[in-house]
Specification:
mainly alpha; Methane Monooxygenase Hydroxylase, Chain G, domain 1; 2 domains; two-stranded parallel sheet; two-stranded antiparallel ribbon; 5 helices; globular
């Protein structure tokens, strides 16, 4: 949703989170109170716990000179300037490279105080910013792979003579997901085609 239906996805999330869930999840949880806690003695649990602990230890071991907030603000500036609603190939390429460099610098120079044996807000924030850096780079990559303008994604190269969004429904009739392939590998794009038999996608006009 970040590159095509960003606004509607945001509103749906707000609606579900603020209005729907509080009125529905209570009844569900009340029936689960007596449900036994699942056994965590499993390799999947052990692997997940080990991976998280190693990641936290890695962040704390860097002991660099820059705060987590520094990287958060730098990333925000990049995304604001080059990955806003109006974007172009040159800016997206620049953003992709800048976020990649910022992410590499984060893992070499971030400074996080404290330890994992205490309530550590800075460590929690560092983990989130590390995720934001990966997501920011992926948003730029995904936007570069979308050769159209639609929704929250306006590629300046794809617009009508009147400056309206120029969609490419035929070329983008799919559900897509990027698969994480490891720290040093490019993500893999998966596509599931969409079929429209009765109502065909059309360009929305506000005139």
């Amino acid at each position: 949703g970040a590159n095509r239906l960003g606004a509607s996805a945001l509103m749906q999330g707000l609606s579900d989170g603020y209005f729907v869930l509080p009125m529905t999840i209570g009844n569900y949880l009340s029936a689960e109170i007596k449900t036994p806690v699942p056994d965590t003695k499993d390799k999947a649990f052990d692997d997940a716990e080990k991976n998280v602990q190693e990641r936290l230890d890695k962040i704390l071991s860097i002991k660099g000179s820059k705060t987590v907030d520094y990287y958060h603000k730098q990333l925000g500036d990049i995304m604001w300037n080059y990955c806003g609603m109006s974007r172009n190939r040159e800016g997206l390429e620049k953003a992709k490279n800048m976020v990649k460099e910022l992410r590499e610098d984060f893992w070499q120079n971030v400074k996080v105080p404290g330890s994992t044996n205490e309530m550590n807000g800075e460590l929690e924030k560092a983990g989130r910013v590390a995720d934001f850096l990966e997501l920011g780079e992926l948003i730029a990559v995904d936007a570069l792979n979308r050769y159209e303008s639609c929704g929250g994604h306006f590629r300046e190269e794809y617009q009508t003579e009147e400056g309206e969004a120029l969609r490419d429904d035929e070329g983008h009739q799919f559900v897509s997901a990027w698969e994480f392939k490891g720290e040093d590998n490019d993500p893999e794009l998966h596509k599931e085609p969409l079929e429209f038999d009765i109502v065909k996608p059309t360009t929305r006009s506000y005139k």
